[in-house]
Amino acid sequence: MSRKPVKTHTFKMGTVEVWQGTREGWVDDLNRMDVLEMGIPDGNSFKTLAVTVHEAMHAELIPDRYLDGERDAAEHIARFLWRLGYRKQEDCDE
Fold first, then answer.
1. Residue 25 is part of which domain span?
2. If we measure between CA atoms, which residue out of 8, 16, 12, 94 comes closest to residue 57?
3. 17 in any annotated domain
4. 49 and 79 Cβ atoms separated by less than 8 Å
5. 10 Å Cβ neighbour count for 17?
6. Based on the structure, what is the number of domains in the chain?
C-alpha cells in the first residue's frame, strides 16, 4: 500500500506534498534532493490552524527568527484569522 499526500502546493521552496494527520507540524528542508513534504495535524482547532500557518511560512522561506520563539508571527496571523471566523472546511478542494 503506497502513501499519497492529501494535496500538493507550490511554495517559494518548491512543490510540497502535504500530509495530514501528523502528530506535530513539520516541513522538509531544502537540502533534500527528492520530493519535499509537509506534515500538518488533523482537526479544526486554533492550534491546527496555527501549526498549518507556521509550516506554510517555513515553506515560503520566512526566516526562523519570525517563526520560532516568543513572538511567533504564524501564531499571531492564525489568531487574526481565527477571530475573523476562518475554519477548515472538510469538503473544500481549493
1. 7-83
2. 12
3. yes
4. no
5. 17
6. 1
